[in-house]
Amino acid sequence: IGLALRMRVGEMLTVCAYGRDYQCRIRSITPEEVHLDVVSSELCAAEPSVSLTLYQAVPKADKLEQIIQKSVELGVSAIVPLLTDRTIVRLNAREAEAKRQKWQRIALEACKQCGQNTLPEVAAPVPFAEWLRRGAPEGLNVIASLVPGVRPVRDVLEEARSRSVRSAALLVGPEGDFTDQETAMALEAGFSPVTLGPIVLRVETAAFFGLAAMRYALD
After folding, report:
1. By C-alpha distance, which of 137, 146, 139, 136 is closest to 186?
2. Do strands 151-152 and 192-195 pair parallel, antiparallel, or not at all (unpaired)?
3. pLDDT at position 172, please?
4. The pLDDT of residue 42
5. pLDDT of residue 219
6. How far is CA 81 from each of CA 7, 56, 114, 133, rounded to the nearest angstrom?
7. Which residue, among 88, 34, 28, has the nearest Cα to 62 in the 3D structure?
8. Planar angle of CA 149, 173, 193, nearest 5 degrees
9. What SS3 string covers the chain?
10. pLDDT value of position 216
11. Ranges of the chain with pLDDT below 70
12. How would you class 190 by CB atoms within 10 Å of its CB: exposed for 0-12, middle for 13-18, buried for 19 or more?
């Protein structure tokens, strides 16, 4: 267990595990171990009631790090980085695994900061076509789209709320959006196109906006 250096024997802390918050008193501290006495426990108040997954095309620079951090704060259950035709970042297997480990550490730190009980899994980057061959997950699946005439995200989420949807996924493209072929593939796989509004959003903003709207509507 990680422990702030300023904590001392006899002080209280909260341990999050398996969907519960445990109020504990520090019994003893050694360089190798911390022994705690459980005083009480309760269901984690920060645990989301709807499972949210973000499928995010890898953007330029270090934007994905910020997306992961904020997505965890918004209560995602998993994040899957995608390599699309317009993805600028290209990684070999060794680089992809190194990135995944770094992204997972960012998710862990975000969990600690916001009090989310369950650590979201950050997958290794996967090519878009390979990912789609696995099939769309169960539940509500939406793709943020710039195509004119698609339904507002509000309308789609209101319908999903009336059906008491318990799992949902958001698919967000890279800079320049998905290609027409990629969009067609996503729709064929079962993703519903939605607009996030008339203003063209940056990649990271689209992810935050979409997740916040889904969390607000479905939770």
Report:
1. 136
2. parallel
3. 98
4. 85
5. 83
6. 37, 5, 22, 15
7. 88
8. 30
9. CCCCCCCCCCCEEEEEECCEEEEEEEEEECCCCEEEEEEEEEECCCCCCCEEEEEEECCCCCHHHHHHHHHHHCCCCEEEEEECCCCCCCCCHHHHHHHHHHHHHHHHHHHHHHCCCCCCEECCCEEHHHHHCCCCCCCEEEEECCCCCCEEHHHHHHHHHHCCCCEEEEEECCCCCCCHHHHHHHHHHCCEEEECCCCCCCHHHHHHHHHHHHHHHHC
10. 93
11. 1-5, 18-19, 45-47
12. middle
**Burial group, residue 219, by CB count within 10 angstroms (0-12, 13-18, 19+):** exposed
Quote the tokens at residue 117: 């009980």
Residue at 127: amino acid letter: P
pLDDT, residue 116, reads: 79
Taking only the tens place, the pLDDT of each residue in 127-185 is 999 999 988 888 999 999 998 899 999 999 999 999 989 999 999 999 999 999 999 99
